[in-house]
Amino acid sequence: MFSWQLYQSHRDKPLMRVHKYENKPFKPPKRLNDSHATQNVIRSTSTKRQGVAESETTSVKKAKPMSSMSVHSSDPSDNKRYFTLMYRKPTQKKHKTWAGDGYATFREGGKLSFYDATGKSIGSAQYKNAPGDMLENLFKSSGLEIQLDYEVSDAKEYQEVKNVLLGNRQEKSSSSQHFDLGETSLTVESSSHNNDNQITPAPLFQNKRANKFKPLIKTCPARNSLISGRKSESESHTNPERKMSYQPVFDASKIDDPIIMNKHCSAEVDVIVDPFISKNLRSHQREGIKFMYDCVLGLSRPPKDLATNQEGFTSRSIILEQDSDIRGCLLADEMGLGKTLMTISLIWTLLKQTPIASTVSCSQSGVPLQGLISKVLIICPVTLIANWKKEFSKWLNLSRIGILTLSPQNTLERDKYEVRTFLRVQRTYQVMILGYEKLLSVSEELEKNKSVLDLLVCDEGHRLKNGSSKILNVLKSLDIQKKILLSGTPIQNDLNEFYNIIDFINPGILGSYQHFKKRFILPISKARDPSNRHNETAVQKGEELSQEMIEITQRFILRRTSSVIESYLPPRMDLILFCRPTETQVMAFKDILQNCGPDLLTTSSNSSLSVITLLKKVCNSPSLIESDAYFNTTLGDSRIFKKYTQALNSGKLKVLMTLLERIRNGTEGEKVVIVSNYTQTLDIIQNLMISADMRICRLDGSTPSKQRDGIVTSFNRDLSLFALLLSAKSGGVGLNLIGASRLILFDNDWNPSVDLQAMSRIHRDGQTKPCYIYRLVTTGCIDEKILQRQLMKQSLSQKFLSDCNNGKDSSNDDLFNKEDLKDLFSVILDTPSNTHDLICSCDGAGEEVNSESVASTMNNKGKRYSPDTWISALEAQKLLEDKEDQNLEEKASLMKRCLVGYKHIGSKHFCNLLDTVAMEAAQNAQSDVTFAFMKPS
Ligand SMILES: Nc1ncnc2c1ncn2[C@@H]1O[C@H](COP(=O)(O)OP(=O)(O)OP(=O)(O)O)[C@@H](O)[C@H]1O
């Protein structure tokens, strides 16, 4: 167990125990009649909330007990004392949190008046006891529970409180020029730092924050920028005389394997990740947090191998240079590596700690009581909001940190009000999680008080790739200095998109767009152009520039593959099952292809894309064409489609139902997730499963966001729920479906990352059972062609983050040449697997493709690649795009590389399938499964 540090406050003082840093909530709720227990908390927060005052003595001043304070400590001029307060509606909840902050005034005679953070009156109370006990009481007034927090004694803060209260009065009586605070004099005394007698009502916490970051000792310029460009303060407030020895919040020597952040030479204390959270972290997560921390603090990263190869690296703090170009990072780890947890750990660390202790209030022993940041905005797809909150709760507990999410039931006005409150009220919420779309509707409110936002996190950050997107522009206008983008999907195909994302994270780092275009985009595009394939100078130049770009961007982009968590996860088996098309399907293919117009093979033709969609539907179930718009308008002929409407009319559906029966009857309560790209396909599967008495739930694009979390939770927990039907694109992202240990991918997307997203829903941290992933592919049809194309893309993208070959958003984005189209529109019936035919001539007795057996691949310059050689993205791009020149052997070789590790199992050898469910299904439905690839992890 972690034990707390005995800090040596000053060299000549004996060791003393300072108050424990207990990860308390930012505003501890107070129970009635618990005065003694709360007293310490209040006193310690009281110290914290004094803020860093103008005079050097106040910053580390111990909070005086209330009883010893002078009645005039707040304001000698108006016989009133001013307090901050917290309020909430009465609640029976175990973990109570506060709804808002505000102020109280106490007048001699015993009247307490309560105000919210905007200065609006929220009640009053008479207090007859000794004034010193006020902090120990929970007041009830106007249906609210109110607790005083601390007495305002700092001159500047006092002035701000008065301004707020005054501002409210002023608003109320806008016709009146008479400013009045009850009996308070109109003339506001000038404080030592405010010689302006004009009263300017100002947003309270904006000013408070300014106070907070005023350094008390002389800071070097680097230190100021470390704190953040926006918050650096003028040197006029520094006090070069002041000497203070600062202490980190945690004692690293008492923590097993602490994570100590790197630092700039100007750092005064170590920042150490809270052991409460760091004890749970995997080693790649420890590295990830340090990486993100360095980036958001603008510290120049150590060389990559230093970060990854050295034992105990994360337990050491390295002095780094300031890198003024960097303020953010892209964490592009593959799915399931814990990007959310890493980000939460970083947020928690930054909220609670700072390397520059002198810029915040500290305990007597010099332990910083405030962090480097205080407000965080997280933007994510609406489907992930609940998941973020859950993860905060899982790793931190929501009683420690205030998380605001906007309820879907809110009116727009309510949303705006809550956003305003989040920005204005400092201590209730530290993190707000918004959906991308919601961001637009509350952008004005954010804009108005944007200066309080310290850190922006964009989950599924590849959504910001479009430079003209409104969302991107709103986020840019918020001008939040520190940014973290998370994306498990590699940045996609386009250097323009790449520029947009990078320029958003670290503005200016790639220069202006014009410069970037001239320097990188044009020469790299030229090198990629197949017509330049013999122009060695252009190709060489393109390669060099790609390399240069990688070098610039790897300072703030981190990507690890899922192999880093394999050892923490139960084993996983991947099975690709080839399913024989039914006669109905074969008829449908023929009918469609024969009835297509002559422009089918025109690459620009819309009809070719519509036919592709139609063929994909037939692979799932021929009855789907009944509702296909293209089929009905162009090919539609009731004569044709009537014969396709029977239910179990596709090979994949037959295999699916057999697998499901086996899972239901042959395993010990295992659950299954079934994924498709088409909701209509899910409808068909749903009907079949309901007819088979299987208990299911479903999550797709039409599921209201407020229901999603409940569906996921009950699927994971409710033992009687057997299956979840999931739509790949709208439902898959970010969900944890570890209640299931089997997943059936009913159809493939062109984009491998869509499928990977879906597959990693079950095989992720928290999973305790071995996992089985089944991909169903219709033998010899478009399904197989998609699989082949996908496998190639996936393999080639593995080592290049900004991979130019990696998946695109949808089939419509994908470009096909004539050869591709011919290939897509051909149906090969006399084979158990066209993919196997392409890569191998074995008899399917379980032979495994290993790297030695993969023939070397030849590029168009005649250069040969051994199987272990990394093919750069550029080379891969050429290999793929230039398929007209590619002979079959090369294509086969490429694909073989993608299937390294898979065993080839023909129908005679299905008994070799290591999964009994697949084995029994394949043997029993021998006529439906034609071939299998199997890859045990
Ligand atoms: N160190 C850990 N120990 C136990 N569980 C963990 C750990 N790290 C992450 N997890 C769990 O693993 C699951 C996946 O993590 P998370 O959602 O953060 O991954 P991700 O990288 O964001 O994936 P995706 O891109 O799919 O959203 C979560 O349930 C999370 O709580």
For this entry, give a set of tags.
937 residues, alpha/beta, Rossmann fold, nine-stranded mixed β-sheet, seven-stranded parallel β-sheet, 31 helices, binds adenosine-5'-triphosphate
Task: Evaluate the radius of gyration.
Answer: 32 Å
Number of strands: 24
Strand order of the largest sheet: 16-17-15-18-19-14-24-23-20
- What structural class results from the helix and strand content? alpha/beta
Description:
- Helix 10 links the parallel strand 9 (403-405) and strand 10.
- This protein folds into four domains: 35-202, no CATH class; 252-562, Rossmann fold; 569-573 and 648-936, 3-Layer(aba) Sandwich (Rossmann fold), CATH 3.40.50; 577-644, no CATH class.
- It has 31 helices and 24 strands.
- Helices cover 35% and strands 13% of the residues.
- The strands form four sheets. Strands 16-17-15-18-19-14-24-23-20 form a nine-stranded mixed sheet, with helices on both faces. The protein has a seven-stranded parallel sheet with strand order 9-10-8-11-12-7-13, with helices on both faces.
- It is globular and about 95 Å long.
- It has 937 residues and is an alpha/beta fold.
- Helix 6 packs across helix 8 (339-352), helix 8 (339-352) packs across helix 9 (385-395) and helix 15 crosses helix 16.
- The two termini are 35 Å apart.
- Residues 1-76, 171-224, 227-241, 795-816 and 855-877 have low confidence and may be disordered.
- It binds adenosine-5'-triphosphate.
